[in-house]
Amino acid sequence: METTTDQTAAEDARTEGAATEEAATEDGTTEDAATEDASGAGADADAETDAEADGPSGVGQGAGAVVSVALGIVSLTGNWTGTVAAARETLVGQLKTSSTASVSQQIKEVYGDAWHTTALWAGLFALVALVTAAVVLVRPAFGAPGRPQAPWIKSVAWAGVALGVIGLLLAVLKYSDALLGLPPAS
Question: Which residue segment(s) compose the domain that 36 sits in?
Answer without folding.
Answer: 2-54
